[in-house]
Design goal:
The protein is mostly helical and 135 residues long. It has one domain: NusB-like (N-utilizing Substance Protein B Homolog, Chain A, Orthogonal Bundle), CATH 1.10.940.10. The protein has helices at residues 3-20, 26-37, 40-67, 78-93, 98-112, 117-134. Helix 4 runs antiparallel to helix 5 and helix 5 (98-112) runs antiparallel to helix 6 (117-134). The mean pLDDT is 93.
Length: 135
């Protein structure tokens, strides 16, 4: 696993916790990230993902809902929902290449989701890229 992949994994853990038990402060988040990554560069990357998703969650959810046929974000499994938020954030707001963001999200879905999660995440984020490119 690459170092940035590990940072994304830690970001997903925090985003999942935010979703199912929203009580984490920024200080607690920093402490959790620091304890797991032990690298200032990776910690900064991880925190930028977490804080970026938190800041843009309403917009990300709206766009994901519009793309996911017959699925509201609330109906999605919590893991899939947060993997999608993370992938969509990277596609829209970072310099990560779109396909790399999808591949990273698919790997997270394989590791933490159900047997169908990887296909679901890949399909939604692929549509997300095409929609972004069309605008």
């Amino acid at each position: 696993m690459s170092r940035r992949s590990r940072a994304r994994e830690v970001a997903l853990q925090i985003l999942f916790e935010d979703d199912v038990n929203p009580r984490t402060t920024v200080a607690e988040t920093k402490q959790f990230v620091s304890a797991r990554l032990n690298s200032p560069e990776l910690e900064e990357f991880c925190l930028s993902l977490i804080l970026g998703v938190r800041r843009n969650q309403a917009e990300l959810d709206t766009q994901l809902s519009q793309i996911a046929d017959n699925w509201s974000v609330a109906r999605m499994a919590a893991t899939d929902r947060n993997v999608l938020r993370l992938g969509a954030f990277e596609i829209l707001y970072t310099d990560t290449p779109d396909r790399a963001a999808i591949n990273e999200a698919v790997e997270l879905a394989k590791r933490f989701g159900t047997a169908q999660s990887a296909h679901f995440v890949n399909g939604i984020l692929d549509k997300f890229i095409h929609r972004k490119d069309a605008n």
